[in-house]
Amino acid sequence: MIGVQNQARSLNIVLGLATPRPHLAKVLRLTGLDHSFPMYGISSPGRDMARVGCGHAATR
Questions:
Q1: Whole-angstrom Cα distance, residue 51 to residue 38?
Q2: Which of 12, 20, 54, 58 is most buried when burial is the number of CB atoms within 10 A of its CB?
Q3: What is the pTM of this model?
Q4: CA 13 to centroid of chain Cα atoms
Q5: How far is Cα 7 from Cα 51, in angstroms, rounded to an integer?
Q6: How many whole angstroms separate alpha carbon 17 and alpha carbon 14?
Q7: Burial class of residue 33, CB neighbours in 10 A (0-12, 13-18, 19+)
Q8: Which of 12, 15, 31 lies closest to 23 in space, CA to CA?
Q9: 39: part of which helix (H) or strand (E)?
Q10: One digit per residue, pLDDT tens: the chain, 60 residues?
């Protein structure tokens, strides 16, 4: 996932996770990777989860 994220960033593409399962969201939070991958469709304190349509897909 990190490699794909790095490639996406080099192409100015935002790679996010849509409604990750609770255990995956927890692992990402514990490892600090939640700051590297925007997560949509979950409630997380201190984060704005109302964002939709980010990245290249929204411009098509």
A1: 9
A2: 20
A3: 0.54
A4: 12
A5: 22
A6: 10
A7: middle
A8: 31
A9: strand 39-40
A10: 889 989 999 999 988 889 999 999 999 999 998 888 888 886 644 444 444 444 444 443
